[in-house]
Amino acid sequence: MEPVHDILSPDTQKGEQAQPEVSKNVVIMGVVSFFTDVASEMVYPILPIFLTATLGAPMTIVGLMEGLAASALNMLKIVSGWLSDKYQKRKIIVVVGYSISALAKLVVAMSSGWHTAMFGKVLDRTGKGTRSSPRDALIADSTLAEHRGRAFGLHRAIDNAGAIIGPLLAIYLLFFLHIEIRSIFYIAFIPALIGVICLILFVKDIHTKPVNHTVFRFKLTDLSPSFKVFLAISIVFALGNSADAFMILKAKDMGMPIELILVLYALLNLTHSLSSYPAGIVSDKIGPKKVLLIGFLLFALAYILFGSITAPFFLWLLFPLFGFYRGLTEGVSVAYVSNLVKEEHTATAIGFYQTMIGFSILLASLIAGVMWESLGSAAPFLFGGSMAIIASLLFIILEKKINHISLFAKTPNP
After folding, report:
1. Are 109 and 186 in contact (CB under 8 A)?
2. For residue 195, how many C-alpha atoms fall within 13 Å in the half-sphere facing its CB?
3. CA separation for the pair 212, 195 (Å, rounded)
4. What is the fold, at CATH topology level, of the domain defined by 19-207+221-405?
5. Rounded to an integer, what is the distance from CA 245 to the centroid of its chain?
6. For the Major facilitator superfamily (MFS) profile domain, which residue ranges apply (predicted)?
7. pLDDT at residue 220, rounded to an integer
8. pLDDT tier, 9 (very low <50, low <70, confident <90, very high otherwise)
9. Beta bridge partners of 19
C-alpha cells in the first residue's frame, strides 16, 4: 500500500476552495433538503391512503409501488455517483434529481388512477436516487476531512427539520382546514420548487482537482479494504432494518389513530434532527466508529422493545428513540465512507455504499413482511434487533482491522 501522505496529503485533501469547518455550500444544501423534506414528508404518510381510499388500488399494488420505488432509488444512486465522479460535475446532477422529485408531486396530484400515482411515486424515488450520491459527494468536497462529521450532521439536521414540519403541516391541512388529500400533493409542490430554486441560485460546484478528460474507470478493487469491511458490517445491520412502514403498522395494530401516528412520526424526525449535528461534532472528536456502534446498539434496543411492548404508551418513547439512533448513524456513516476512499472515487463509493444498503433494507422489508404474516408482529422487530447486535459484535471484533487498513491519516481514530 502507498504511504498515506502519497495518496492524499492534508494540504491537498479537498483543494483550495474547501472550507475549514462547515461551508456555505453545506448550509445551503441543508436548506434545499429542508424544503424538499417538507414536501416529501407531507405526502409520504398519506400516499398509501390516497392510493387505496381515493384511487381504489389494492394492497398488492401498494407493495408493488414500494418495491419499484426502492429499486429505482437504489439503482440510480451508484449510476449518478459514477457519472458525478467521471465528469467532475456534481451540481447539475443534483439539480436534475431535485427537479424530478418536485415534478413527481404534480404527477400524483393530477392522477386519475392508481397507475399514474404509482408512476409518480417511482418518479419521486428516481429523483432521490439521482441526487443523493452527488449531493453527499459535494458536501464532502466542500469540507475538510476532519470536519466532515459535523458537516454531514448539520446537513441532516436541517434536512430533518423539514421532515418534522411536513407531517405536522399535513395534520393541520387535513384535520383542521379539512383540505382533501389530492390538494395536499399540489401544495407539496410549492416547497419542493423553492428548494430547486435555492439550489440553482446559491449552490456552487467545488472542483477539487482539474478535470481529467481521459476515460474514467472504476473497479471494485479501487475501493479500500477498510471500505469493504465497513460495508459488510453495514449490510449485516441493514438486513434487520426494515422499512419505517412496519413501525407505523405496529402503531396502527396497537390502536393508534392516524393523526397520532403522524405526530409519532414527527417526533421521530424531531429527535433525528436534534441529534444529527451533535453526533457529527462528537464523531469528529472521538471518531466515527464509537458513534456508529452506539447507534447500532440503540437500534437493537428500540427494535427489541418494539417487539416486546403491549401498551401503546411506550410508542411515545420508542419512536423518538429510533429517531435518535438515526441521528447518530445517518450522517456519520456517509462522512466515514467519504474518508475511506480516494478523492476521485468519493461519489461512486457513496453511491455504491448506499445502493448496497438500500437493497439490503429492501430485502429486510420482504423478510419482515413474511415474518409478520407467519409469526406475528413481534417477529420482525426481534429479528432486526438480533441482527443489530450481531453487527455490533462484528464492529467491535473488526475495529482494529479497519483502523489498520484505513487510507487516510485525517480520518479520526477513536
Report:
1. yes
2. 31
3. 31
4. Growth Hormone; Chain: A; (1.20.1250)
5. 15
6. 26-403
7. 64
8. very low
9. 143
